[in-house]
Amino acid sequence: MANRREAVVPDRPALDVVPGLGDHAYVHEVSGMVDRAFIYSERWSVQQGRADRTGAQPEILEFERKLIKRCFKLGIPLFAHCVVRGSLEQNRLFKAGRSKARAGESPHNYGAAVDLIHGTKAWALSPKQWAVLGHLGKEVAAQAGIDVIWGGDWKFWDPAHWELANWRSIRAAYADGEDWDGRD
Ligand SMILES: [Zn+2]
User: Fold this and answer.
1) How far, in Å, from the CA of 170 to the mean position of ligand 1?
2) CA angle 103, 155, 145 (to 5 degrees)
3) Fewer CB within a 10 Å sphere, N or C end of the chain?
4) CATH second-level architecture of 19-172?
């Protein structure tokens, strides 16, 4: 393991990597998210398997994997807090004002979205740190040819959230009244 540890040197941050953030700011925001002790801990591994991925869309899983890997190389622990969400949980979040979608209206209900949060800080990142993750996510998606939308670009700001741009056509493949989750 010692060798592996040494082999993981943070990528040299690209200059101007995040529009609106200077190089210095970028380095600063990244270093605020780095936690190498945690990323090699058992807790990080356990986090990776936490979310329900049953029936998830392969493209969102590929995106998740690639963004987590990209962040891992930088020393940033990231994990999927949620991929697939059933109807009871969806309605509970809606009533609590934590989601703008009712059951059946969220891409999570079709396994077409992922909420990626920090391993130790969870959602408690600064807007600039989220902006860095947003940029990295878009870069990874473009490289993989996966068309995703980032919740950090919305008015209903949800920077942990990433969804497949075509999730509504995925939803359309479900017949009316079909039990689309069957989990709750
Ligand atoms: Zn989400």
Assistant:
1) 16
2) 75
3) N
4) 2-Layer Sandwich (3.30)
Distance in Å, CA 101 to ligand 1 centroid = 10
Spatial CA neighbour of 46 closest among 2, 82, 79: 79
Distance 109 CA to ligand 1 centre (A): 10
Find the 117 Cα to ligand 1 centroid distance in Å.
10
pLDDT in tens, the chain (184 residues): 444 444 444 444 444 455 555 666 688 899 999 999 999 999 999 999 999 999 899 999 999 999 999 999 999 999 999 999 998 999 999 999 988 899 989 999 999 999 999 999 999 999 999 999 999 999 999 999 999 999 999 998 999 999 999 999 988 887 654 545 544 4
CA distance 37 to 25: 23
Spacing, Cα 80 to ligand 1 middle (Å):
10
Contact 45, 72 (CB under 8 A): no
Q: Where are the domains of the chain?
A: 19-172
From ligand 1's centre to the CA of 108, what distance in Å?
Answer: 6
Q: Return the DSSP state at 100.
A: S
Measured in Å, residue 162 CA sits from the centre of ligand 1 at 6
